[in-house]
Design goal:
Layout lengths: L3 E5 L6 E3 L3 E16 L2 E6 L2 E5 L5 E17 L5 H10 L4 E4 L2 H16 L4 H21 L14 H11 L6 H7 L4 H12 L3 H19 L4 H7 L5 H12 L3 H8 L4 H7 L1
Antiparallel strand pairs: 1-6, 2-6, 3-4, 3-5, 3-6, 5-7
Helix pairs in contact: 2-3, 2-4, 5-6, 8-9
C-alpha cells in the first residue's frame, strides 16, 4: 500500500477491524474512543495511539470529533525508514502529545486540510510526524495526563494562540495542549496567572488587534475576522471597553487611519 495522511471524523457507532498496514492516530477535536489489545481509552486533543499492522481494534466517535490518521506500509524499501517504523510500532499503545508536538500537529493538519490531494505534501507531513513522535517517545519523558511538573508554559500557549487566533478556542482545547482535564487546567491557570483562560485569550486577541492597528492599514472589519471577532461591532465594543478608545480613533493616534474606518466610527 501507499502511505496516506487524512483528516477524518469517526461515527458514533462502533466499528472493529484490523489492516495490513500500521496506523498513527492523533486526536484533534472532540473525543473518540479506541480499544487496543483489551485496553480502552479516549483519544482526544493531546492524545493519540499507535496501531501496528494486523492489530484488531475497536473505535467510535463521541459526538463531533476529528482525528488525523497516518497510514504507513508495514514494509518499505527505504532501509532507514523501515527501521524507524519497526522501532515505533513494536507494540500497540496510547501516548500523550507534549505541547511542542501538538503545535506541530496543528500546523501540519492545516496543511493536510488545505491540500488533501498533494501527495508530496502529505508524505512530508507523515514523515515529520513519524520522526517527531519517535523522538518524543524514545528520548523525552511523556507528560502525565493528571498533572505536569512546574508552571504552565505560557510561551507555548501564546504560540498556539497565534496559530489559531482567527477562530473560537475552547478551554478544553487549551487543556488538551497541556494534557490536563478542563477543570485541572482552569484551576491551575487561574492560580498561576490570576485570570481565567477565557480572559487570557481575550486579552491576547485585543493586544494583537492593537498591534495591527499600529502597524497595518488593514480595514477594521478585516481585523475583526483575522483575530476571531464575530463582527466589526463586536471588536469595537471589546476594544473600547478594554482600552477606553475605539479602534478607529486608536489608529488615528498611533497608526494609519483609513477614511472609511473613521467615517464608520465618527
Amino acid at each position: 500500500m501507499n502511505r496516506s495522511t487524512q483528516l477524518i471524523s469517526l461515527p458514533s457507532s462502533a466499528d472493529q477491524h484490523d489492516h495490513h498496514y500500521h496506523q498513527l492516530v492523533f486526536g484533534l477535536e472532540g473525543e473518540t474512543e479506541f480499544e487496543l489489545v483489551g485496553h480502552s481509552r479516549e483519544v482526544s486533543i493531546g492524545h493519540g495511539c499507535l496501531v501496528p499492522c494486523s492489530t484488531e481494534h475497536i473505535f467510535s466517535g463521541l459526538g463531533d470529533n476529528r482525528i488525523l490518521v497516518v497510514n504507513l506500509p508495514a514494509y518499505s524499501e527505504d532501509r532507514q525508514q523501515q527501521e524507524r517504523v519497526e522501532q515505533l510500532f513494536r507494540s500497540a499503545r496510547y501516548f500523550n502529545c507534549p505541547p511542542q508536538l501538538q503545535l506541530l500537529l496543528r500546523t501540519l493538519s492545516r496543511e493536510v486540510e488545505s491540500s488533501p490531494e498533494d501527495s508530496l505534501l502529505l508524505e512530508a507531513c507523515s514523515n515529520t510526524l513519524l520522526c517527531s513522535l519517535q523522538r518524543q517517545l524514545e528520548y523525552l519523558p511523556l507528560p502525565q495526563p493528571r498533572g505536569m511538573a512546574g508552571r504552565l508554559n505560557l510561551e507555548l500557549l501564546d504560540d498556539y494562540l497565534e496559530l489559531h487566533i482567527e477562530r473560537r478556542i475552547s478551554v478544553a482545547e487549551l487543556a488538551g495542549l497541556f494534557c490536563l482535564s478542563s477543570s485541572q487546567f482552569f484551576a491551575r491557570f487561574k492560580t498561576e496567572t490570576g485570570r481565567t483562560p477565557q480572559e487570557y485569550v481575550s486579552e491576547y486577541r485585543l493586544r494583537a488587534v492593537r498591534s495591527a492597528l499600529e502597524n497595518s492599514a488593514a480595514p477594521i472589519a478585516q481585523l475583526a475576522g483575522r483575530f476571531g471577532f464575530c463582527s466589526q461591532s463586536a471588536l469595537t465594543r471589546a476594544f473600547s471597553q478594554r482600552f477606553q478608545i475605539s479602534p478607529a480613533h486608536y489608529r488615528r493616534q498611533h497608526g494609519q487611519a483609513l477614511p472609511e474606518d473613521l467615517a464608520k466610527q465618527a
